[in-house]
Amino acid sequence: MQALKGFKDILPDESPTWQWVEATARSVFHRFGFGEIKVPILEKTELFARSIGEATDIVEKEMYTFIDRNGEQITMRPEGTASVLRAFIEHNLQARQPLTKLYTIGPMFRHERPQKGRLRQFHQMSVEAIGSDHPRLDAEIIAMAWQLLAELGLSASLQINSLGCPACRPAYRQALLDFLAARQDKVCDDCKRRSATNPLRVLDCKSAHCQEQYQGAPMILDHLCAGCAEHFAAVKSSLDQLGIPYGVNGFMVRGLDYYTRTTFELLTNALGAQSAVGAGGRYDGLIEQLGGPKLPGIGFAMGMERLTLLLEQQNGGATPSQGIDCFVAALGDAALERAFSLLHALRGKGVKAAMDLEGKSLKSQMKQADRLQARYTLILGEEELAKGEAMLRDMATKAQENISMSADNAAMATTILTKIHPEQK
Ligand code: ATP
Ligand code: MG
After folding, report:
1. Which atom of ligand 1 is least distant from the CA of 118?
2. Cβ < 6 Å from ligand 1: which residues?
3. Which of 21, 181, 220, 373 is 20 to 30 A distant from 235 in Cα terms?
4. How far is the CA of 274 from the centre of ligand 2 (A)?
5. 69: Cβ–Cβ under 8 A, 6 or more apart, which residues?
6. Mutate to test the pocket of ligand 1, among 63, 115, 118, 121 (most ligand atoms within 8 A of CB)
């Protein structure tokens, strides 16, 4: 049996890198005032259709949607924002503070073509800041993404754009439609259809041929209303103030319909076509659209597969945690029994300990100690035990020391702990 196409096991050797990415992210998010929220993987399909947009790739062809046993239409979440906002509304979280800052980490599901850095089950670290439309918040959120990459030791380039608001979109839409009308016979069927339903989407078409046609297309940046233009200028000056370099990309429309005003992407050139390690933007009308209060918000998501791939490429990833503190070797049934209790007591005191549960030969046990890179081995032999002693061997220096055994396993574990100082690794 094999895993499904586009679904991947994360193996023990890879886990340290994943854990490090997650721990670094949590540390940064907490410093910026974000709290964790865990939301379900399954939601009503309607939630995503209404937020991401009916005429997007995600909703049209990538969602894992099914009818459950009660006949309800269910979808495995393709992204985090919709679920987090649904929870925000359902639990009335804005009552707590003027600004609600939430993050969630977990798997997302999209039925796209699997490639390096593009899977069908992938993982995002996704953040949302709800309750202010101030441009300084946009800069703060981008700065947090930037800080996270810096602490991971990764570099990416930041591109920003503004997608305007319901006041400036209609005029832009008309300008775009006029431009597209002259090119209808030269673009793909998806683009033809979208010109009618959701013209902004065509700019996001992945076909190089279509992209050629769209060169010189009008950009929303040139059609912003006064409020949006002023907002975008303020975001840029706040980024300047924080010393965060960016490029303005007027053609970046993002693959989700809910964005308004600021959008951004963090790009690398080290992952082939999968260049975005993170992306996000503002979604000022979305909470209301989902039945919640009229509150603005902004967020982003980072792709964990892409971050870990970059780390592996760059420096082989995080090193797996080094060997164990103490291997307990035992000879004979009585010693084996004693070793088993002692092992449990050592672990209870915080010592990373192991033994051979089956009591194989001493030679085999010493081999296991080596394989586990044990710093110390505690040898319990029949004779030593009879004398009330055990032997502690420092595996690096080969120095051996007899230590006296007390009957109490917890007391014994404490004695061993003071000898091996596991905190001084
Ligand atoms: P792309 O342009 O690469 O398809 P996207 O715009 O669809 O990305 P978002 O929906 O904004 O991506 O998700 C944010 C981040 O999640 C992306 O920048 C990327 O790092 C990651 N991501 C998105 N889709 C996948 C996927 N199928 N496999 C792995 N990571 C993904
Ligand atoms: Mg995509």
Report:
1. 28
2. 79, 110, 112, 117-119, 122, 124, 255, 274, 276-279, 301, 303, 305-306
3. 21
4. 9
5. none
6. 118
What is the C-alpha to C-alpha distance for residues 322 and 423, in angstroms, rounded to an integer?
13
Length of the chain: 425
Give the DSSP letter of residue 320.
Answer: P
How distant is the alpha carbon of residue 397 from its chain centre?
42
Closest by alpha carbon to 49, among 67, 71, 65, 36?
Answer: 65
Q: How far is the CA of 303 from the centre of ligand 1 (A)?
A: 6
User: In angstroms, how far is the first alpha carbon of the chain from the final one?
Assistant: 41
H and E: helices and strands count for the chain:
15, 16
H/E segment holding residue 193: helix 189-197
Quick count: other Cβ atoms within 10 Å of Cβ 29? 21
Structure letter (DSSP) for residue 174: H
Q: How far is the CA of 383 from the centre of ligand 2 (A)?
A: 67
Could you report the per-residue pLDDT of 69-104, keeping only the tens digit for each?
999 999 999 999 999 999 999 999 987 678 999 999
Atom 12 of ligand 1, residue of closest alpha carbon? 279
**pLDDT mean across residues, the chain:** 93
CA diameter of the chain: 96
Among 370, 375, 390, smallest CA distance to 423 is for: 375
Nearest-CA neighbor of 41 among 11, 5, 69, 82?
A: 82
CB-count exposure of residue 416 (10 Å: 0-12, 13-18, 19+)? buried
In the 8-state DSSP scheme, what is residue 232? H
Residue 329 bridge partners (DSSP)? 379
The H-assigned helical ranges of 285-408 are 286-289, 304-315, 333-348, 362-371, 382-386
CA–CA gap between residue 3 and residue 210 (Å, rounded): 35
- Residue 351 parent element (H or E): none
Beta strands 326-330 and 376-380, pairing class? parallel
Strand partners, 299: 128, 281
Q: pTM value?
A: 0.91
* pLDDT score, position 318: 82
- Which residue's CA is the nearest one to ligand 1's atom 11? 279
Evaluate whether 21 touches 311 at the Cβ level (below 8 Å): yes
Cα dihedral sign, 412-415-417-419: negative
